[in-house]
């Protein structure tokens, strides 16, 4: 918690457009859960299963809906969506250090690179030939920005981010440590049992307000660019292969793997560990649950799943054994259906033939 920052409850209510119940002059200096909050902190109730902690919470104030506020005697900010309100206020109390404007003496910047005077280039960072860094961009320590790559206004690169050449990033994009954007895609042609490398001559284009998690990799296109739309959110350790296209405001949890040339629509949600084969299309407004293997295109919005959920090991082994028997069982059912058909139809009358 950053103890140097505090706001009155009235100020926070004004920022959120919330209805204030209680002491408007109460100073709030941080955020916390209902269970852990102290008198100077603001908590929130976003899930009904935590309502049992509300009465005994020591929080100075709580973000609540009108319904949850009924009967609550403490200070409260009444909002439509407490979790969204918490998300908005979280930036007010973020202790993340702000990098000083300017180029650190240990950074290496090519003579023909363009760095806006309002940008920050951290220690040991390398800005290659022809790169363009816009106003308000923060390039963390030991980052590499490749030739002709561009970062739009307000971008933030954590330490040790790598941008290969010809990576175009929009405005207000956040890239966490270890992320690699523009790496060469997995492209090879087979010649008499030996693999011949295919040059990856496309680039990567990323829209505005995108977030890219730690150690996530986005490969450059083989011919055309790999495309990431506006507002896309990518968690940690995601693999985006060459020529993938992801529509605006789609989100992916950790360890998702997207194979080459797959197209994902707008407003999709891809849960953790999902895999997608290449050259398929996923329409807008699709939700894919965790560990699903997507093997064909999805043309209708909705939720999709595959695989089996967890169960006790002994039960799972029985289920696995039955799965191995399904093919033989299906053949037996087909044989029984044929026998049943003969019995129900009876012998054919040859005099009618």
UniProtKB/TrEMBL annotation:
Q: Which Gene3D superfamilies match?
A: 1.20.5.170, Hexapeptide repeat proteins, MurE/MurF, N-terminal domain
Any keyword Signal?
no
Under the heading InterPro entries, the entry gives: Hexapep, Hexapep_transf_CS, LpxD, Trimer_LpxA-like_sf, UDP_GlcNAc_AcTrfase_non-rep
Gene Ontology biological-process annotations: lipid A biosynthetic process
Give one Pfam family: Hexapep
* Keywords for this protein: Acyltransferase, Coiled coil, Lipid A biosynthesis, Lipid biosynthesis, Lipid metabolism, Repeat, Transferase
Entry's Gene Ontology cellular component terms: membrane
Keyword Nucleotidyltransferase appears in the UniProt entry: no
Coiled coil feature spans: 319-346
Instruction: List, in alphabetical order, the Gene Ontology terms for molecular function in this entry.
Output: N-acyltransferase activity
**Domain UDP-3-O-[3-hydroxymyristoyl] glucosamine N-acyltransferase non-repeat region residues, every copy:** 25-91
Task: Please give the PANTHER family that the UniProt record associates with this protein.
Answer: UDP-3-O-ACYLGLUCOSAMINE N-ACYLTRANSFERASE (PTHR43378), UDP-3-O-ACYLGLUCOSAMINE N-ACYLTRANSFERASE 1, MITOCHONDRIAL-RELATED (PTHR43378:SF2)
Which HAMAP family does this UniProt record tie to the protein?
A: LpxD
Q: What is this protein called?
A: UDP-3-O-[3-hydroxymyristoyl] glucosamine N-acyltransferase non-repeat region domain-containing protein
Q: Which organism is it from?
A: marine sediment metagenome
Q: What is the lineage of its organism?
A: unclassified sequences, metagenomes, ecological metagenomes
């Amino acid at each position: 918690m950053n103890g140097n920052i505090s706001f009155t409850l009235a100020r926070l209510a004004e920022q959120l457009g919330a209805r204030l119940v209680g002491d408007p002059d109460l100073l709030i200096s941080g955020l916390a859960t209902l269970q852990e909050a102290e008198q100077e902190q603001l908590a929130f109730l976003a899930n009904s299963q935590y309502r049992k902690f509300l009465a005994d919470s020591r929080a100075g104030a709580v973000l609540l809906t009108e319904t949850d506020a009924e009967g609550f005697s403490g200070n409260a900010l009444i909002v439509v969506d407490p979790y969204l309100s918490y998300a908005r206020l979280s930036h007010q109390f973020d202790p993340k250090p702000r990098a000083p404007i300017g180029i650190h003496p240990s950074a290496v910047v090519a003579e023909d690179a363009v760095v806006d005077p309002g940008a920050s280039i951290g220690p040991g960072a390398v800005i290659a030939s022809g790169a363009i860094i816009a106003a308000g961009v923060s390039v963390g320590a030991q980052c590499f920005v490749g030739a002709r790559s561009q970062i739009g206004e307000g971008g933030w690169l954590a330490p040790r981010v790598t941008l290969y050449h010809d990576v175009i990033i929009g405005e207000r994009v956040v890239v966490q440590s270890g992320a690699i954007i523009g790496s060469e895609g997995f492209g090879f042609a087979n010649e008499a049992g030996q693999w011949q490398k295919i040059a990856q001559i496309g680039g990567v284009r990323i829209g505005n307000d995108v977030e890219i998690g730690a150690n996530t990799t986005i490969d450059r296109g083989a011919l055309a660019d790999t495309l990431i739309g506006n507002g896309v959110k990518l968690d940690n350790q995601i693999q985006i292969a060459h020529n993938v296209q992801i529509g605006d405001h789609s989100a992916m949890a950790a360890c998702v793997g997207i194979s080459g040339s797959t197209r994902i629509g707008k407003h999709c949600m891809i849960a953790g560990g999902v895999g997608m084969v290449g050259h398929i299309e996923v329409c807008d407004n699709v939700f894919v649950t965790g560990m699903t293997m997507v093997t064909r295109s999805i043309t209708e919005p909705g939720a999709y799943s595959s695989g089996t959920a967890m169960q006790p090991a002994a039960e799972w082994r029985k289920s696995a054994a039955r799965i191995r028997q399904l093919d033989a069982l299906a053949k037996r059912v087909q044989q029984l259906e044929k026998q049943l058909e003969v019995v129900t139809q009876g012998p054919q009358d040859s005099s009618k033939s």
